[in-house]
Amino acid sequence: MSRYLPEEIIGDILPRLPAKSVLRFRCVCKSWLKLFRNPNFVKHHLKYAKQRNSTNLLLS
Q1: How far apart are CA 47 and CA 29, in angstroms?
Q2: For residue 35, how many other CB atoms are within 10 A of its CB?
Q3: What are phi and psi of 55, to 5 degrees?
Q4: Element at 9 (helix H, strand E)
Q5: Residue 8 confidence (pLDDT)
Q6: What pLDDT shows up at residue 56?
Q7: Domain locations in the chain?
Q8: 3-state SS of the chain: helix, strand, coil percent to 5?
Q9: Closest by alpha carbon to 14, among 3, 30, 29, 25?
Q10: Which ranges carry the F-box domain (predicted)?
């Protein structure tokens, strides 16, 4: 996924982003698109979005 950051760190940061950013970042690389389509990513993103009381939820 990245030469500079371990996958665990990227996997912890990306679910915390707003849905609008996640949708935009799908085009960064194939591995990020694959990550964003992963049901576990969606579950974690929803968890963080609920914590923020955000109305911008990622649904796939």
Answers
A1: 24
A2: 20
A3: -95, -5
A4: helix 7-13
A5: 87
A6: 54
A7: 7-51
A8: 65, 0, 35
A9: 25
A10: 1-45
Q: Which residues contact 22 (CB under 8 A, 6 or more apart)?
A: 14, 36, 45, 58
pTM value is 0.69
Alpha carbons 58 and 56: distance in angstroms, whole number? 7
Q: What is the pLDDT of residues 2-55, one digit of tens each?
A: 578 888 888 889 999 988 999 899 888 898 899 899 999 999 999 888 887 645
- Kindly state the tokens that stand for 58: 């990622």
Interatomic CA distance for residues 25 and 36, integer angstroms: 9
CA 42 to chain centre: 7
Which pLDDT score, from 0 to 100, does residue 53 have?
64
